[in-house]
Amino acid sequence: MAEAYLTQQLSLQSAALVEATQRLVQTPSPNPPGDTAAVARVAKELLSGIKNVEISEYETGPGIVNLVARVTSGTLGKRLVFNGHLDTYPVSGVLAENCDLWSGELVITLAGDEESGGVLGSGWLLNNVDIVRGDAVVNADVGSPRVVRFGEKGTFWVEITAEGVAGHSAHVHNGVNAIDRLRGALDAAQSIERIPFESPREVTEAIENAKHVSEAISGDGESRTLQTITFNVGVIQGGVSPNLIPSKASAKCDLRLPVGVSIADVEAHLREQLDPMEGISWTPLQRYEPTWTSPSERIVQSALKASKEVVGPTGLDSVVNMRVGGSDTRIFRLAGIPSVVIGCTPFGMGAEDEYVLVKELEQVAKIQALTAYDFLRK
């Protein structure tokens, strides 16, 4: 069978996959400042080894380099897009060597601006490069080879500012404490966690059906987090001394929105709760709607099938689920393109010595190849 052949070929290329990943990880590309020129050169060299590949490079800002690579089967068919950061490397060389097994084309987009919201990365590519608009997208952001993520929560960042009247703390009757006002405003804003909403049944059923597998990987309570509005105060500033009444205070907050809650809902709540409060103002900093692809879509089922074939039964089955974190797939979903995320489990994510398992790196490469084959097969 073609699936077994492709898996075997990927197993033979395991050492090359690990070496390619090491080269990419060893090349600095932190954001900020967001300079991806060096890692783009490495990625371009790696992509150049794919048979009959066409590579384009786009610098959309100082040092923000994006790469787009295309491999065509030579026959008409669908277009599948592999989307990732410039520190990932989707494996398509195996499929490029066996164009007779599939039709259509594969496109690889390596964005240089994911951590800053994707405006100059995947968003720019989707709006300016025709071949980036495919029939489906596979993204290799972190997760688990056993969980196919078909959607993600929305994001709303807001800065809330409180104005008061300065004075000495011994004479509180002559001042107005801005931090006290801010505390009240934060409580009012956080009450959004209790507003009623309804998610599509297809989404809630998928979350519940995935709970026993997904929470074993991502932690107890994930399914509840996926189905609730969360409010986190990440930054607070105000005051200079304990014996002075602060005249100004501010906080930056992160709200995550499940499917069924819109940006308009959040803004309406903040206007209702905060606008009448004296000395309080608020400003949105970043906002993205929740997005999801139906679990019944072909790309989701192809990825699920591939995950089951590669990972196999080990006490936990492969499942489909939503995602608590964000990725560039939201950009494609908002453009009407079905998209999934399936990647390695992150260990120590965001901390020193963050790592993934070589075994899972190999599994994800196989899952991506088999997903592409199943989606594009003749």
Automatic annotation (TrEMBL):
It comes from Penicillium chermesinum. This is Acetylornithine deacetylase. InterPro entries: Bact_exopeptidase_dim_dom, Peptidase_M20, Peptidase_M20_dimer, Peptidase_M20A. GO terms for molecular function: hydrolase activity; metal ion binding. Belongs to the peptidase M20A family. It comes from the Eukaryota. PANTHER family: ACETYLORNITHINE DEACETYLASE, ARGE_DAPE-RELATED DEACYLASE. Coiled coil: none annotated. Keywords: Hydrolase, Metal-binding. Residues 151-275 form the Peptidase M20 dimerisation domain.
